[in-house]
Specification:
By secondary structure, the protein is mostly helical. The chain folds into 2 domains: about 5-50, no CATH class; about 60-220. The chain has helices spanning about 50-95, 105-130, 135-160, 170-180, 180-195, 200-220, and strands spanning about 5-10, 20, 30, 35, 40-45. The strands form 2 sheets. Strands 1-5-3 form a 3-stranded antiparallel sheet, with no helix packed on it. The relative contact order is 0.09.
Amino acid sequence: MMHGRNTWTTVPQGMSAGGLCWTAELTGAVTVPERCGYSVRFVSDGVTAPGLTALAGIEGIRVRARTARWVAGCTAAGSVALIGAGVALAYLNRHLVPASLTGWTVSNISAQVVNVAVPVAGFVLASRRPENRIGWLFLVAGLTLGLSGFSDQYALHALIAVPGSLPAGRAFGWLLNAIWQVPIATLAFLLLLFPTGHVRSRRWRLAAWFVGGVFALITV
């Protein structure tokens, strides 16, 4: 049912397929098709029809889902690119840094390959279930893993392998020391929020605050 002042108006229209005239209104107006020349339109100044409101809500959900998929995809792609760039720098540094610092080892390369699975899993989960925090935690972990690996090799190349060859070497070294604990923190929150993306009870909420506080102190 529609409330408020209702009016009938006629507006000239052009020829459409099948000899019918259609109009589209974003203001809640409902247009009745008529033969060309005029179309009859019912306009309400009050509450819009429930069907129109439902359609607007569905469109809003679709837009949010597309946005979440786009953000998740960009984050995952950036994480994989950072991991690949870190491996490339490790290859360049393999003969230019001490053996104890080189990242071109079987264990490190294997770890980087495994790390690729983290942002990929996050993209799959976040794009399909954007309301669940689990996928976004995977994406945060994947991004910090990529940043850590890249920052490590970048700082080695800029400060030790070929000093001064790349800018901001010290900044990337500082970044590595600042974010190394983030993947561990996300793992702790994954255990607390699995599988629904929410804590099980108030007692678990206190545990989540405790974990967050501990990692905040470690960061400081």
